[in-house]
Amino acid sequence: MAARARSSTGGSGESRPAPTTSPSRELPSDPDEAIRALYAGHWHRLVRLAWLLLHDQLAAEDAVQDAYVATHRNWNSIRDTGRAVGYLQTAVVNACRSAQRHNIVVDRQNARDVAAADAPGRGSLDSAEAHVLRAAERDAMIDHLRELPPRQREVLVLRYFADLSEAQIAHTLDIAPGSVKAHAHRGLNALRKTMEQS
């Protein structure tokens, strides 16, 4: 019994200060100072509480952060009740419930989206032959582009692969817009003829 008394008093006869769970009336009246004290005393414990409810570290930290913001915002009405820590814990639990409700709504919507007939990726898949033919056509087009004069090739690449306007191409190549049209027209005609012959 004496050993227990010594351990709780630190051996000096004076009792140790209680853990930081002091009521609001013992916290600073200034909201910023009060939040700093509450943060130092309770952040990790509240994040652990939120994690146990959400099983997501980032979401847990967000919920606790929101609770501290709400506590700071309402500090003038909270400090006189002596229940700052209780308010903070309730705010964390409510933020977790809100996050859980939001996740349920998102999961339901995602399930509906995936099941929709027009969902991305639900179209019929091309056969292996179609992929090979498309690749061959692309390779042939690149080969034919290489055979064009440099200026025609540049104009066509900038227009149809980089999706630039005629004005943007003219600025990029430092040529007149009329020249862009002329090079594009000649290049397309040459490509068409070459593709027809091959």
List the domain count as a whole number.
2
Q: Work out the helicity level.
A: over 70%
Main β-sheet description: none
What percentage of amino acids are in beta strands? Answer: under 5%
Total helical elements: 9
Uncertain spans, ≥5 residues at pLDDT below 50? 1-25
Write the H/E string, N to C: HHHHHHHHH
According to CATH, what is the class of the largest domain?
Mainly Alpha
Average pLDDT, rounded to a whole number, is 79
Query: What is the CATH T-level topology of the largest domain?
Result: Rna Polymerase Sigma Factor, Chain: A
| Measured distance between first and last alpha carbons | 101 Å
- If classified by CATH, what would the architecture of the largest domain be? Orthogonal Bundle
As a whole number of angstroms, the C-alpha radius of gyration is: 35 Å
The backbone outline, from C-alpha atoms, is elongated
